[in-house]
Amino acid sequence: MSKIRLEATAIDLRFDESILEQVQQAHDYLHQNGGSAGHGFLGWIDPPAESGELAEELLGAAAYIRGKADVLLVIGIGGSYAGGRAGIEMLTHPFRNQLPPEQRNGPEIYFLGQNLSASYIKGLLSILEDRDVIVNVISKSGTTTETAIAFRIVLGWMHNKYGAKETARRIIATTDRSKGNLRRISEAGDYRTFDIPEDVAGRYSVLTPVGLLPMAVAGIDIQSMLRGARDARDQYSTCDLTQNICYQYAVARNKLLNQGKLIEILVSYEPGMALFAEWWKQLFGESEGKDGKGIFPASVQFTTDLHSIGQYVQQGPRHLFETILWVEDAHCNVELPELAGDPDELNYLAGKTLNFVNEQAFFGALQAHTEGDVPNLVLRIPRLDAQHVGHLFYFFEKACALSGYLLGVNPFDQPGVEMSKRNMFKLLGKSGSTL
Ligand code: PA5
């Protein structure tokens, strides 16, 4: 696998002695699994083996779903949603659900439980009336309101459609090994289950059954993905900052924060990476935004947003920096044709490719933003395949964990999120929850 590279413009990547000591301490927290807040949540550090028992089981379940269903409905929110969808959108056809079955590679995949919109769920169920459906409901706690409500509605719909016995064969629950409502419901309903490891927080769980099962159903080579993640684990297990670009990234963003750069914008030039940016925002926002600290994680899609937010980036307050995900081999290309008479004055580009034009847009924006005093980090990704995407998931998980420790917060808890969840329970009148 060719390596991911990190480059910086207008950022001094030299690091002083004091930061090296802090990196060593954060590294020890992560690798010695002790002494730190959140030390019980380091299960993601060792991704599952690509040819281990879990991978085999997931592939077996994926084959069952692919053989039986027209549609996989994935129900979940936050860390129990974003990573799997990000992987699918990055690695499959941009209009996958619209493809004819023989070209699609697996069932159509839809997501619900990420909102409380009646029109969304009603609209979705209405297009599934005459389709064969299998459900993967995902919740670590088993009590998250959006997921639980969507699942209850879908369960009733499935019972009407298939009856209780067949419904049980069509539900797969991904949840805690022993605790929570979803575990209890699964046992009572005799559903097939996959465990979410207790020592993996939701937003670090993409490389567990949470993300891997939906991705395997979409035909993604999850064994390659795990290989990529394990390569990343090996590559980023050194504390030597000169060798570890994952740590360089974490340190650079903390250095920028100390210089008043309060916002980090993740930039990509491929629409298929939009959900990856959502996953990244959740990872960093939920891990670092606490105790009055943290960088605000934002994202843009270029070139689309060069025509909107690009103005703010270029000339708004200078409190932001960009991290660009640049894919070097875009795996498909389109050549611009010559047009007689040149009515649109584009013949100067005839014979050039869209990737070439996209790259010039990248260079142009990079230069303009650098001149506009926006520091830039560029992560050069050789190509978007399962192995590199696995590597990328791991890269950001580890960078986020290290970065959180450098910031002095616990990167594995989410007291603010829990507060909203509790308030919602109270306001809805859940028994045992008082205002
Ligand atoms: O990262 C987290 O812990 C959260 O974003 C959770 O993933 C999210 O709230 C969903 O929780 P659960 O899986 O318990 O339904």
From TrEMBL:
The keyword Transmembrane helix does not apply. The active site is at E286 (proton donor), K421. Keywords: Cytoplasm, Gluconeogenesis, Glycolysis, Isomerase. Its EC number is 5.3.1.9. Its main location: cytoplasm. It catalyses: alpha-D-glucose 6-phosphate = beta-D-fructose 6-phosphate. The keyword Transport does not apply. One of its GO terms (molecular function) is monosaccharide binding. Pathway: Carbohydrate biosynthesis; gluconeogenesis; Carbohydrate degradation; glycolysis; D-glyceraldehyde 3-phosphate and glycerone phosphate from D-glucose: step 2/4. CDD domains: SIS_PGI_1 (cd05015), SIS_PGI_2 (cd05016). It is an enzyme of class 5 (isomerase). It comes from the Bacteria. InterPro entries: G6P_Isomerase, Phosphoglucose_isomerase_CS, SIS_dom_sf, SIS_PGI_1, SIS_PGI_2. NCBIfam families: PRK14097.1. HAMAP family: G6P_isomerase. PANTHER family: GLUCOSE-6-PHOSPHATE ISOMERASE (PTHR11469:SF1). This is Glucose-6-phosphate isomerase. It comes from Tumebacillus avium.
